[in-house]
Amino acid sequence: MNTRLCCTVLVVAAIALVGCATTDTTPPPSRTTLPYKLPMLTPVDPDKQDQEKDGIRVTVAPYTYTPKTVVRKEYRILSPSFSPSSFIKVQNQQQQQHPAEVKEIPSIAITPDTIRLKVKIYNRLERIVRLAGAVVSFQVAGKQANVPKARYEDFLNGIVLPRQEVEYEVGGPDLTDLPDNATIAFLLYDIVTATDAAGNPTQRSNFEFFYTLSRQDKQQEVSSSISRIALGDADAQLLMQRSGASGQLLSGPGQWVSMPELDR
C-alpha cells in the first residue's frame, strides 16, 4: 500500500511540474509605439473647391486619411521539451495535440490608400446632364498619372437630372507613388453643358482643382503578444513543412513563419 501511494504521489507531482513549465514560458502582452506618416490633401486655393460654369456646379472635397492598426500573425511549433504533448495526447485520445505559439505583429496602415475625392455635381440646367464622354484626369507635378478607369467609372456613368445634385466618389493615384509636397491636379474636361435640338453637344466645360499632398509625423501605441495554442496533426505537419523542420527532431522551438490557413 505504501509503495502504491508513493508512486501515485510521484506521478501527480511530475504532471504538476510539467504543467507549471508550460505556463511560465509565454510572455505577457507588450505595448510599443509605432511611428507613421499621416497624409493630408490641402487645396491650393480653398475658394475654388466650388466652381460653377454654364449651369453646372462642381464641388470637390478630399477624404480625410485615418490610421488603422493591422495585425499580422506568425506561428512556430514548440519542442516537446517545452510542453508535454504526450500528456496532452492522453487527455485527447482522438487526435494528438501539438504545442505551438502564435505571435501578433502590429503595423499601421493608412486608409484610404489612394487619392480619394467626393465630387458633387449640381445641375442647374433644364435638361439632363450625362457625364459619359467627360475626361477625368490626375496630374502629379504637371505629369499625367496612370489611374485605373475603375476608380472613377461610376462618375463617367453618372446622370444628373435637372435641378438635382448627385455625389460621386473618384479615386486617384496610389499614395505610395506620390512624393511629399507634390502638387496634384484633378481635372474634369469636356462635360457637356449645351446641346442642339437633336441632342448633339454644342458646348463643353472644363473644371480644374489643385491640391498639395503633405505628410505629418505621427505615432500610435499598439499591443503585441505571443500566445500558446494547440494544433492537430495536419496543421502541425504543415507548420513544420513551412518552417523547414519537417521530419527533424526539434531541440527547441521552430522558426516563426506565416500561416494564413491558421488565421482566424
Structure description:
The chain is α+β, with helices and mostly antiparallel strands. It has two domains: 27-34 and 69-108 and 219-262, no CATH class; 35-63 and 114-216, Immunoglobulin-like (Sandwich), CATH 2.60.40. It has four helices and 13 strands. The protein has helices spanning 2-23, 85-91, 153-156, 233-242, and strands spanning 30-43, 50-53, 56-62, 66-77, 98-111, 114-123, 129-130, 135-140, 143-144, 159-160, 165-174, 182-195, 201-231. Strands 1, 4, 5, 8, 9, 12 and 13 form a seven-stranded antiparallel β-sheet that branches. β12 and β13 (201-231) form a beta hairpin. The longest helix is centred in the first third of the chain and has 22 residues, at 2-23. It is elongated, with a radius of gyration of 31 Å. 16% of the residues are buried. The model is unreliable at 1-24 and 81-92 (pLDDT under 50).
Would you kindly provide a brief summary of this structure?
The protein has 264 residues and is an alpha+beta fold.
Number of β-strand runs: 13
Q: Estimate the helix proportion, in percent.
A: 10-25%
- Give the low-pLDDT segments: 1-24, 81-92
Q: Can you write the helix and strand succession as a string? A: HEEEEHEEEEEHEEEEH
Form type: elongated
Q: Give the end-to-end Cα distance, rounded to a whole number of Å.
A: 51 Å
Question: Which architecture of the largest domain per CATH?
Answer: Sandwich
Rg, rounded, reads: 31 Å
CATH topology of the largest domain: Immunoglobulin-like
Strand content is: over 45%
Supply the number of structural domains.
2
pLDDT averaged residue by residue: 84
Structure annotation, total helices: 4
Largest sheet: 7 strands, antiparallel
Q: CATH class of the largest domain, anyone?
A: Mainly Beta
Q: Say what oligomer this is.
A: single chain
Structural class: alpha+beta
